[in-house]
Design goal:
The protein is mainly alpha-helical and 343 residues long. The protein folds into three domains: 1-105, no CATH class; 121-227, Ankyrin repeat-containing domain (Serine Threonine Protein Phosphatase 5, Tetratricopeptide repeat); 230-343, Serine Threonine Protein Phosphatase 5, Tetratricopeptide repeat (Alpha Horseshoe), CATH 1.25.40. The protein has helices spanning 3-26, 31-50, 59-84, 90-105, 109-120, 127-131, 143-150, 153-161, 178-184, 188-195, 210-216, 220-226, 240-246, 250-258, 275-281, 285-293, 307-313, 317-325; strands at 329-330, 333-334. Helix 9 (178-184) runs parallel beside helix 11. The longest helix is centred in the first third of the chain and has 26 residues, at 59-84.
Length: 343
C-alpha cells in the first residue's frame, strides 16, 4: 500500500472511530452500533499499520478497503443491537431484519444467530435457569422472552414444558410478553407454540396487542394467523384499530380497515371512544380522514361528546381547522359538535 493510501485509509478509520464514539455519546440507545463503528475504525487503522501481506498501489483501493471495513462494522453493530434489544429505535430493528435476510442468501445467517445465542447464553442455559424460568434479567426479560426474540423453538418449548408462563410481561417500559417478541421478530413457529400454550394475544404492550405488533412490523404470515382477533377487545377495552388511531400509525390503520376492522367500534370502558374519536383527539388528521372515508361516524358520542368535541377538548386545533375550512363536512358526512362558539 502506498504511503498516501495508508494515510487516507488511516484517516478514514480514525473518522469512523470518532463517529462511533460520538454516536454512543449522543444516542446511548445505539451504543452497540457506535461500538461496532468504533471497532471497525480501530481495526481499519490497525490493518493499515500492520498489513504486510498485500501491496495496494492505488489510492482508490485503499479508500475502498476503509469504506468496506466501515460498512461491515456498522452492519454488524446494527444487526446485533436491532436483533437483541427491544429498547432501540424501530428503524434499527428493521434494518437488522433486512441485514439478516440478506445475510441468509450468502450462507452466513446461522453465524449471526450463533453469535446472538452465544452472547445471551440461551443456546446452553444452565439447569438452574431452567428451574427458575420465570426470573427476570437486568433488562426486565425472562428466558422465554429471549427464546422468542431469537426464534429458538427448542429452547422455548423446553422452557414451557418446565412451566414457564407465556404471558409474563417484561418489567420495562415496553411491557412485551414472549408473544409480542415473537410477533416483533417474525418467528411464526414460536407464535404458534405460545398460542397453543395459553399465550393471550389481547394483552397490551407499548405497541398494542399482538396483532398490532405484527402489523407494525409488517410480518404478514403472523398477521394472517392473528386476524381472527382483528376486532377483539383487550383487557382495557380497546381494539387494534383504536391503538393504530391513537398512536398515529397510518399504515397499520389502513391495513386494519382493509381487513375489516370496525371503524365505529366503541371502547368497552367509561370513555366509549371509537377509533374516529381517538384519531380526532390525538390530532391524527390523515387517519381521521381515512376512517371517515371508510364509514367512520364522527357524530357518535363518547365521554367528551362527538369526535369534534374530543378534538376541541384535547386541543387538536389543526383537526378542527381542517374541518372548519371544509365547511364542517368531509367524505359526504357533516361533522357536528355540541358547542361551536369560539371555533
Amino acid at each position: 500500500m502506498g504511503s498516501w493510501g495508508k494515510v487516507a485509509s488511516f484517516i478514514g478509520g480514525a473518522a469512523l472511530t470518532a463517529g462511533g464514539v460520538a454516536l454512543t455519546a449522543l444516542f446511548p440507545g445505539l451504543a452497540l452500533v457506535g461500538a461496532g463503528m468504533t471497532s471497525a475504525g480501530i481495526s481499519g487503522m490497525l490493518y493499515v499499520v500492520t498489513n504486510q501481506k498485500y501491496e495496494f498501489k492505488s489510492y482508490r483501493s485503499s479508500l475502498a478497503i476503509g469504506f468496506c471495513t466501515g460498512v461491515v462494522g456498522t452492519a454488524i453493530g446494527t444487526t446485533i443491537v436491532g436483533s437483541l434489544f427491544s429498547d432501540c429505535p424501530k428503524y434499527v430493528q428493521k434494518m437488522a431484519q433486512l441485514i439478516i435476510g440478506a445475510a441468509s442468501k450468502f450462507g452466513i445467517k446461522e453465524n449471526i444467530h450463533k453469535y446472538q445465542k452465544d452472547e445471551l447464553g440461551s443456546s446452553s442455559l444452565p439447569l438452574k435457569i431452567m428451574k427458575n424460568h420465570d426470573t427476570y434479567d437486568e433488562r426486565g426479560y425472562t428466558p422465554l422472552h429471549m427464546a422468542a426474540m431469537l426464534g429458538d423453538f427448542n429452547l422455548a418449548n423446553t422452557l414451557i414444558q418446565e412451566g414457564a408462563s407465556a404471558n409474563l410481561v417484561a418489567k420495562n417500559e415496553w411491557r412485551y410478553t414472549p408473544l409480542h417478541e415473537a410477533c416483533r421478530h417474525n418467528h411464526i413457529n414460536i407464535v404458534k407454540l405460545l398460542l397453543s400454550n395459553g399465550a393471550d394475544p389481547s394483552l397490551k404492550c407499548y405497541d398494542g396487542d399482538a396483532l398490532s405488533v405484527a402489523i407494525s412490523y409488517k410480518n404478514r404470515k403472523i398477521i394472517a394467523l392473528l386476524d381472527g382477533s382483528i376486532n377483539a377487545y383487550d383487557s382495557v377495552g380497546y381494539t387494534p384499530l383504536h391503538y393504530a388511531a391513537m398512536h398515529s400509525r397510518y399504515s397499520e390503520a389502513l391495513h386494519l380497515v382493509n381487513m375489516g376492522g370496525d371503524v365505529n367500534a366503541v371502547a368497552r370502558n367509561q370513555w366509549r371512544y371509537t377509533p374516529v374519536h381517538e384519531a380526532f383527539r390525538h390530532g391524527c388528521l390523515e387517519i381521521a380522514k381515512l376512517l371517515l372515508e371508510n364509514g367512520g361516524d364522527p357524530n357518535l358520542y363518547c365521554n367528551e361528546g362527538t369526535a369534534l368535541d374530543a378534538a376541541k377538548v384535547f386541543n387538536s386545533s389543526h383537526v378542527v381547522s381542517f374541518f372548519r375550512s371544509n365547511g364542517w363536512s368531509y367524505a359526504g358526512k357533516t361533522v357536528t359538535a355540541s358547542i361551536r362558539e369560539g371555533w
